[in-house]
Specification:
Elements: H1 4-19, H2 23-28, E1 31-36, H3 44-53, E2 54-58, E3 72-78, H4 80-88, H5 94-104, E4 109-113, H6 115-121, H7 129-145, E5 147-149, H8 152-169, H9 171-175, E6 178-179, H10 181-186, E7 191-195, E8 199-200, H11 202-211, E9 214-218
Parallel strand pairs: 1-2, 1-3, 3-4, 4-5, 6-8, 7-9
Amino acid sequence: MMDQEIIERIVLEVIKQLTASQGKLNNTAKQKLLVVGDPLLIEPKYLVKLESKWEIIYNNELEKVRSEHFDQVVFLHATQDLLAKGALGIFDTNESKLLSWCLLESIPVSIIPTVYLEKYLFNGNPKNMLYVSQLLEYKQRLVKFGANVETLESFVVGTEEVLETISAKSPISEKKKLLTQRDVQDCRDDELVVDKQTIITPLARDTAREMGKRIKVIESKGAKR
């Protein structure tokens, strides 16, 4: 009877052969970010960071955007009009319709207010606090609904950190088609995360059980909603 370690090597080699033609595509796949607004409003240093992490989609024809696939949306230079309509559930423009649709579908949304609005929403002591408090209430409602109301800088830094964290916490599910005994032994965490497409060898399961580690199977990131 063949040794289990030899079987693992054979299976691993077969998988490498099968995935060789599409390996590069899988490794470079990026999530899609829909940018609503003038891209010239994005500072070059931020644009470089975004393009390194996302596949950027620029689309000003918002009435057609629903048929496209994207993972997250950012509204640039959002006016008071969009804040109020989003918070109150009013959708009578292309932008407000898209925002409403994203909130209903729980699609991640970031709203970057105009520079003029930023100083009232994020800092400063306004002369008319009563009026500004209404704007802050709109902001809080949107946050409660699942949207992020933030500066462009915080959005760029935030998404960069989130994507890096996801990559760091999911090394096996992102890179492995086969979970072997060596993967279990090398993993420093008590939990190994793999997706449903990953093949788990019997020796890997036995080793995890012996070492007191848990193998968690999750839905693949590429799965459709």
